[in-house]
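Q: Protein A?
A:
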Amino acid sequence: MPRPRSHTLRLSPVGELWDWQRFAACRGMDSSIFYAPPGERGQRRRAREARARRICESCPVRQDCARMALETQDRYGVWGGLSEGDRNH
């Protein structure tokens, strides 16, 4: 028996959820700019995060990227200009 329309879910291909990434300023860049290597702290970490944020500043999908990281509670990396510390506080 079919479900009533009010309970029907609209399913989208997974690709549609991630399609915005095609337009990201970071596309194709070395991911080490956005993710801390083990043990990175202090000035080195701040410098790497600042570099990542500069890339994010002009990104046309910055808000989509930040929203995705917040919604999925991603704990690592710089997403949409937000560092791990920004998102985890």
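Q: Protein B?
A:
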Amino acid sequence: MAEPEFSASGVRIGRGLRSLTRAGQVRISDGRLELLTSYGSEIDSAPVQTVRASRPWFASEDRALADLNGTRYLLTLGDHDPAPGQPGPPAAERFIEAVRHAAGRDH
């Protein structure tokens, strides 16, 4: 099995207003994006070419949106909530770039 192109743990994964896990995992490997619970159970997965990843305009810097199989997930990537007025860790931007790179949409 190849090394994952992107991997993050401790990710809060939500759908709408519902939190699915507060310590999940996001992984891009072998052309697939996987959203996993903290126990490694699959929440959802899709070929990375079909995934849309973006930054929500209404949220802090550590959050990203991922559309998989017609479902929108809000991902909070980062080890902590930033202090008010402070940017969070750049993990959300790395995630979005990793999705674009893996899908061949670098530009």
